[in-house]
Amino acid sequence: DIELYLQRCQQLSVTVLTDHQDLRNTELKTIKNSTAPQQYRIRAKLRTYKPQKLHQSVKLYCSKCKSLQEVPNGDDFNFILRGSAFTAPNPELHNTFWYESVMWTTQDRKQREIAIHFVKHDEMLQHPEDTLLMIEGGTLKEIWKLTKRFKCVIPVRSTEDDLELLDLSAPFLLQGNVKYYGCKQCSTPKPMRSLSSIAAEQQPSWEPTEIAQALGIELLQYVFIMKFTLVDETGALNAYIFDY
C-alpha cells in the first residue's frame, strides 16, 4: 500500500529514495545549484508529500492545452443525467440507417422516458460485447448496468436534427468501469451521426481514441501526480511525479 509506505518513510530518519548504486551520494544543496538535466543518487528524508490521500493524485490531463483538472465524482455525473432527463427523446430520430432504437417508460413515480439506440453494422446488430449504444434519459445506475453487458455506452440527448453529447463535465463515453472525458477548451463536439462512418467500417473496434476523434473530442488522459519534499543536512528539495 503506497500510503502506508509513504507514512513509513516519514518515520525513518534516512531513506534511500533512488537506486543508481554506481553513483556517489550527492547533497541536495549541490543538486539545487546544478543545471538540469543530471542524474544523481541521494540519501534524504521524506519530510512531506502531497496529496495526503492517494486517490487525490489521479487527475485528468489534456495533452493539447496542457491543462489539469480534477476527476468529476459520481454526484456531478448524476446531476447532469437528471438534467438531461427533462428533454424527452425525439421519436423522429429513432431507427435510422445506422442504429436501431428501443423506447420505454419507467414504472416509477416520475415515469421517465428512456431511449436506447443500438448501433448497427451491415444493417445488423452486433454481439453485445462488440456493441456501442447511446442512451437518453437513463440514470447512473441504469447506465452502469448497461456497461456490464455492452462494450461502449454514450449518454446523449435529442435535438431537432440529431442526437448530441451531454455537457463535457460528464463522461462522453463509458467502457467497462472506465469513464472517458473530453477537454472543454479543446473539443468541438460533433453530432452523433459522425459515428456512422465507424459503424460502416469492415470491423468496427469502437476504441475510445477513434470515437473521440470522430466526435471532435480532445480526449483527456488519466495521470498520476505527487509532490515530495526531501531534506538532508544541506537543504530541502521538491520532487514531482507525473505519469500516465
UniProtKB/TrEMBL annotation:
<protein>
    <submittedName>
        <fullName>POTE1 protein</fullName>
    </submittedName>
</protein>
<dbReference type="GO" id="GO:0032210">
    <property type="term" value="P:regulation of telomere maintenance via telomerase"/>
</dbReference>
<dbReference type="GO" id="GO:0000783">
    <property type="term" value="C:nuclear telomere cap complex"/>
</dbReference>
<dbReference type="GO" id="GO:0016233">
    <property type="term" value="P:telomere capping"/>
</dbReference>
<dbReference type="Pfam" id="PF21375">
    <property type="entry name" value="POT1_C_insert"/>
</dbReference>
<feature type="domain" description="Protection of telomeres protein 1 C-terminal insertion">
    <location>
        <begin position="75"/>
        <end position="218"/>
    </location>
</feature>
<dbReference type="InterPro" id="IPR048953">
    <property type="entry name" value="POT1_C_insert"/>
</dbReference>
<dbReference type="GO" id="GO:0098505">
    <property type="term" value="F:G-rich strand telomeric DNA binding"/>
</dbReference>
<dbReference type="InterPro" id="IPR028389">
    <property type="entry name" value="POT1"/>
</dbReference>
<dbReference type="GO" id="GO:0010521">
    <property type="term" value="F:telomerase inhibitor activity"/>
</dbReference>
